[in-house]
Amino acid sequence: MLIDHNVEYVIVGHSERRQYHNETNEIVAKKFKRAIDSNIIPILCVGESLEQRQSGETFNHIREQVVSVIGDDMVNNSDRYVIAYEPIWAIGTGETATPDMANEVHMFIHKTLNDNGLSKNNNVIIIYGGSVNSNNASDLFEMSHINGALIGGASLDVNEFTKIYNIAEEINNE
Questions:
Q1: Given this model, what pLDDT does residue 119 score?
Q2: What DSSP designation does 157 have?
Q3: Mean pLDDT of 140-162
Q4: What is d(CA 4, CA 134) in angstroms, rounded to the nearest whole number?
Q5: Which of 34-38, 57-61, 92-96, 117-121 is modeled with the greatest confidence?
Q6: Alpha helices, H only, the chain
Q7: Whether this model's pTM surpasses 0.85
Q8: How many whole angstroms from its chain centre is CA 174?
Q9: Distance between CA 174 and CA 103 in Å, rounded?
């Protein structure tokens, strides 16, 4: 169906699918591979719960999500995918990771890819999602390891979305 509609990107592994539809990393991996095989660029969502963050499990959880989905030559070393770091505790809550917190996780994801031979020259785009809005977009987009954003609720307000877009454009043109 996605191919019939010329879809270029598809989100896989979103926390709500994992939670409400019991999508395991194994199921997400199958969807991810199917997208790659269909020439659709998958956007792999990874993120931790508040409890995992507070107990210091963030990096182990993120590593498991990334490696279990794109490891074992799953994508034949393709760089045609995007990873979206979406801390579950920040989705739709109005809370957001500080730019430094988000950048630290993005840097960790790049390291995980490199350590597992999954990213040639750090070409994989890693974006942040988790209550991105026009008030925090500039600080997030200026971080060295954040390549963009997966906009959720703010995308429903054309004025807010336009502000975020303009912030991104301004930073990219500096």
A1: 65
A2: S
A3: 95
A4: 34
A5: 57-61
A6: 15-20, 25-37, 50-54, 58-70, 99-115, 137-141, 158-172
A7: yes
A8: 24
A9: 20
